[in-house]
Each structure stands twice: as C-alpha cells, then as structure tokens.
Predict the 3D structure of the following.
Amino acid sequence: MTKVYLMLKSQPVSYPEAMVEYNNMLAYIRDEVVRVVGNWINLEGKVPKRTGQLRDTLTATLNSSTVENNVLKIKLGSMVSYATEVNDMPAAVVRHVRQWGKAYYYTHATGTHWIMLNDPFAIGHFWNALQIYTEGNLINISQRAIDEYFKGTGKLMRSVRKGLTFG
Amino acid sequence: MAYTEVSVYGYITGDNLEAYTGIDYSANNAVYTEAVVMAKVTIAERMIHGYLGVSAAQTVTDGIISAVTMISAHLMSISMQIHATNNVISDSYVINIRTILSMFLGYDSGVDAIPMSGAD
C-alpha cells in the first residue's frame, strides 16, 4: 500500500505540525508584503501626496491584511473619495517638487490653507501600478517563503524577520 | 441577517438598520457581530434619548425611529471606514493552500518530476 508523507525540510511530519509551519509561513508572507508595498507607497513615494490622506488610507488598508483560518488575505484600497480621480491623472499632473499648493483637507480660520507640495517620485495611474506591484511581490515573496519554510534551512527568514515590527 | 440581540431602548432593530442601509454588515466583515452592530444602535439611541430628552417609556414616534436609524447608519459608516470595508478603490489577494500547492507543483515540475522515464 502506498503511504503518503508530508515532508518538511526533508523530514516527515504530522498534519498539525505542517499546518503550524504553514501558518508561520503565511504570517511571514503577510509581514513582508505589507513592508515592501508599504515602502512603495510611503518611502519610495510612488503614490501622489498632497495632504497625505491617500497614502495614509492605503497604508491603513494594507495593514489590515490578515491570516485567518489558514488563508492569507492581502488588502489594498482607499476610502478617500478622490482616489479614482487621482488615479486617472498622469505623473505630470500629480508630481510636485517643492511647490506651494492649496490644501482641501485642513480648515483654516483665515481662509485657504497653503501647504508645500513635495512628492517628486509620485507616478501617474498609481492604483494600476500598485496592483501590479503587489501581485508581483506577493508571488515572489510566497515562492521565497515556500523555499525557506519547507525546503531550505529557514535561517535567512528568521534573521530577516527578527527586529521587524508591524502595526 | 436576522438579529436576535436588541438595543438598550429598543427604538429600532438591527433588521431595520440593514433594511435602511441595504448592507449586510456581518457579511461585509466578521467584526460586525450582532453585539457590535447593536452597540452602535444603542449609542444612537442614547444620543436621541439624552439630547432630545425622550423618555424610554414613551411611545416611539416616527421621528425617533428615523433619527436613530440615520445616526446608527452614520456610526456604522464611520466604523466601516476604520475597518476599510467601504473603500472607493479596493482589491484583495488571497493565498490559500491550493495556491501554495500549485506553486509547489510549478516549482517541482522542472527537474524532479521525471519519475516515469524508462517505463514503457
């Protein structure tokens, strides 16, 4: 009779043991995708910024990505009403290098509030680019995580994971 | 969802609220249990009760019902923004065991998966 083994790094393991490691792997993928895509939004500054509301909401949604019931769900999105309009604009319109502009998000006792606009790396049609970037990174990170958690030594992952904190 | 929980003053039910907004809250996000939704309704009722001086025992008028419905719908809307369930733009990517297995198989199909060589 053929016997089927679950293999974890060349060692046969029980189903619960495999699932524990599988969940650790999903948590790792979640943390990495949130970190990489979060950097794309904020540090690399690809998403246009005027008041920062769009970036903040995108980051908040991304941070709400979950691992539940053995399923990883990466969430993208923004609730700001003008998100679709910003996405329609090309880089030439949304990108600013140290320019003064109106802020529509603050109220000011003396009238219009002016702020310094500085998002030199903002791109046009950010939403489409963000989706492509997230999907590509999710696949790459998953593939790397499978290698590390089920095939490799696992040392690299733990050293990468160590010291990172996520909200 | 048919609500069995009731709010503190019972001016409206959870079903009244869902009928008004057209949103099945628990289907939107698992956070929205009956208790959570009815807690929002209760807060709306307390606002009406407190600000307008409506006594709990008095007849529930149309005005009270409509005010509580609209305020609790607004409170739920704020909550949904916090939980990012009413986004203007949104997308999600799901990785489950099937996805992971397909990645395994794709990975293994190159070198290792030639077990039948030489078998006629």
